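[job 4417] fold queue: 2 targets
>>> target A
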Amino acid sequence: MITHWWLNEMPPIPGILRAVFYAGLLVICLVDQPSPLSSAKVIEKTEPEFYTPVGALRLLGIKRVRPRLLTLVARLTVVVWIAAAAGLLQPVTGALTFVGFAFLHAVNAGALGANHSMHSSLYALLCMSFSVSYDFSLDRLLAQHTVWPRLVADDSVLTSGFAPALLLVLLAYTMFAGGVAKVRYGWSGWRDGSALRFYLEQSAPVARWPWISRLVTGSPALCRLAAWGTLVIELGSIAAVFAYEARLPLVLCWVCLHLGILCMMMPAYWAQMWCYLLLLDWPRLVSLVTGGDPGHPAVPAGGAGAVALAGLGCLVVAALLYVLLTESEQWPFTSVPMYSNGTRGADRMALPGRAELHARAVRAARGRHGAWQRAWVDQEYMEDIWVRPADDGAEPRRLFHLLHESGATPPARWSQYAKVVREIAVEDVAAKPADRPEHTPAREYAAARFLREVVPLVRNALPGWERYRALELICRTECGGVVVARAELADRPAEEPVR
C-alpha cells in the first residue's frame, strides 16, 4: 500500500517536462540572486568572522571554501545540468546536478542567515535524481543510432511517479511549516493581522506594487483577512499530499500567495513557483484539451528497488516531522521561521527583563527559538553591536548602519549579520552566571572574543574609526540596553563598560 502510493500517486515526469523544468530552473538560478550558482560572490562579500558553516560541511571538515573553487564547481554543475535537461546519461547527470547544487547551496547557507528561497530548488533537483524519462532525450536518440547504453531499463522504478510524489511531500511540508512557525512564534499578531501589517509597512520602500501595499496596510480588515488567508493556505497545504482533488487548487493558492509576497514585499519565490510545475497532473490536463486518455500504467510495487524508494520516502517524512517538532534549522532542512514573529510594531515590542536574559538564553541555546526572538526585519532586533564614540557626549551608533552610511562594505548581508550577533549573544549570556549578564574584564566570554576579532574589520573598513572608542554587544531589555561584551577599538587599557 505505502510502496504503491510512492510509485503511483503521481504520474511519471515526461521527457518534455523534464527538459522544460531543468532549463527554466537553470535560467532562474542564473538570474535570481542570491543563488547557489553565484555562491563565489556571496562568500567574497562575507567576512570569515561572520560566516557560519552548516553542520554537514563541518562534519566533512570544511569551514570555508575559496571563491575560485566555488566558481569551478558552479561551472561544472551548469554543464551536467544542461546534460540532465537534454536527457543525457540519465540518471547520473541528474544526480551530479543535485550534488553540485547541494554543495553550493550548503556553502551559501552559511552566509545568508535563515534564507529559504532556494530550498525548493534543492529539493526538486534531489527528486529529479530519481526520475528517468527516455522520451524526448538524447539517451533515446543516441541509442537508436549508435551503441549508446541506457543506464536503467525502460521498466525501472526510476520511470515511476516517485520523484514528483517525493517533491509533493517536500513542498507541501515547506508551506505547512511556514504556517506552523507563524502560530508558534507569533499567533496573536497573525490572528489580528497586526504582524502582517508590520511586515508590509517595513517592506513598503521596496514594494514592487506600492499601491497594493498601501491598500492593504491602510485597512485593518484587509490585513486581518490577508493574514488569515495566509494561515489557511499554509496550514491547509498538507491536504495536497492526501487529497488529489485539492492538489491543483492548493498549488494555485501557493502561487497566488507567492505573487502577493512578490508585489508587496522583498522576497521573490520564482524558483519555488517554477518547481510547482512538477506537481501538476499534466496527462490529465492535456486530456482535458485533447480528449485523450489521461491514464498511465501502474508501476509494480514489488521488488527491491520499489521497496528502497518507498523506504527513502518514509525516511524523508520522518526527518521532516523531526525538523518541525524540534524547530531545527539544520541544513538541508528548515522549519521556515521567516516573518513569523507576531510583531505589532517596534514601539510595542515586549522586551525581556534583565533578570530573564539568562533563562531565555539557556532555552534558546537548546533550540527553543521562541525564547529569544530572531529579527527578520531591522526593527525586530533584540541585540546588536554598537560603536561607542570617543566623545562621551555623543550617542553610540549601530555598527552595521554606521558602516553602510559611511560607504563602507558591511561584513555580511544583514540577515547573516543579525543571525551571527544573535547566536553570539545567546551563547555568551547562557554561559554567564544567571544574575550577571554584563561584560566583565575578569573573564573573556564568547561575545568579548568575537568583538575582539571584529575590531580589525572595523578599523580597516570604517573611515575615521579613531573617533570611536569601543565596540559593545548590547542586549535590549525593558530597563535599557545591557552591555554583555566590550572590546576597545584603539590599543589602550580597557575601561569599565558604559552602561
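>>> target B
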Amino acid sequence: MRGSIPGAGLLALVLVASCSDGSATAPQGTTGAVRYADAAVSVVPLDKAGDVPTHATVLVAASGGTLKSVTVKGPKGSLAGVLSADATQWHSRGTVLPGTSYEVTAVAVNPAGKVTQTATSFSTVKVEKTFAIKEFLPDKEMTGLTVGVGMPIMITFDQPITDRVEVERNLVVRTSKPVLGAWHWFDDKTVHFRPKTFWPAHTNVQVEARLEGVRGGRGLYGKQNQSLHFKIGRSQITKGSTATHHLTVRRNGKAVREIPMSAGRGGDWKYYTTGGVHLAMSREPVTVMTSPDAGPGSAGYYQMTVYNTVRISNSGEYVHSAPWSVGSQGYANVSHGCVNVSPDNAVWFLNNTLIGDPIIITGSPRKLEPTNGWGHWQEDWKQWLKWSSVKYFTTDSL
C-alpha cells in the first residue's frame, strides 16, 4: 500500500500561490492589494499629424480602462462625438475644417480609479478654394414654402463638384413622414432630390446642407452650412389628354374640377404639347409670349400677351387663358403647344395651383424631356438612381 506524503497538500497550495501574478485577486483571508496598470489611450490621427483630410474621423480608444472624457477642440469650438456602450472607444461626428489645428484631450481611468490624461494635436489640409450653394429651392420668394407633391429639392453650386460622394452624403433630408428618395446629379453644379413616388400630402421637410469644410474636389472645400424648411401641401394632381381635350383636377384623390382644353395643334414638332409628368413651375398673372424660332417680319413670328398662366416646362408651355380658342376647347387642338383654357378656368387654376403640383398630359407623340424644366418624374426610379452617388435612402425623422 502506497503511503501519503505528509504536508503535500500545503506544498501544492504554496506552489500555486507562488505562480500567481501581482494583478490577480488575493486569496481569501489575505490583506494583499490588487495592482492595476495605468489605462493606455491611443488617438488617430497621430500626434502632430499634418494635412489630415477633412472627412477623417477622430478615433480615441482606451485599453486597461475606460474613457472618462474626450475633447477635440478647434478655433470654432469642440467637435461632437459618440462614446461606445462600454466606454472604451470614442469617434467624432461631422467634418473637421480645412486649414485648421485641433487639440485632442482624452481622460481615461483604470479599474482602481487612477486617472490618465493624454493630449495630442493634428492639423488639416489647406484650403485652395471654397464652394457654396448658389440656389436652394424651394424657397419663399420663387416657389413659396408650401409646395405640391411633385416638388423636387434643387441645389445649384457656384463651383464644379468632383467629389460628389462626399458632398452628397452631407446633404441630409429630414421629414415628418418617412420618405424613400435619392439625390440626382444633372451636371457638376446641379443636384436635385425627389422621392421614389410623390411626396405624402402635408409632410414637413427640412434639408440640412452640412457643407462647411466638406471636400468638393481637389483643394475645394465647402464654405458654410445651409438649411431650409418647407411643407408639402394637399395632394393635387391634374391629368389631361390631347385626345379627349379635357383636364381633370383631383385633390386628395377626389375630382374637384373638369376643364375643357385645347392643346398643341401639331403638324410641326414644335407645335405639339409635350406629353408626360409636368410640374407647375411658376404662376404668372401676365406673360408675354413670343415665337421661339422666328423674329419680327419672319414667317411664323408672333408676340402676344396672355393672362393667368401656369408654366409647365422650359420650352414655353403654359396652362393659360385663351379666350380666342374657347370654341375649340373640349373639341380640338389649335394652340402653338400650350394648354388653352377659358378665362374663368384659367383664374381658378392659377388660384388653386401650388408650385410643384403635377400636371400630367397624355396622348401626345412628343414626350417631355427630363431636363425640360422640372421633368424629373419622366425618369423612372432606376433611371433616376443612375445619377446618384450614394443611391437611395429613407429620410431621417423630423
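[job 4417] complete. Note on B: The mean pLDDT is 91.
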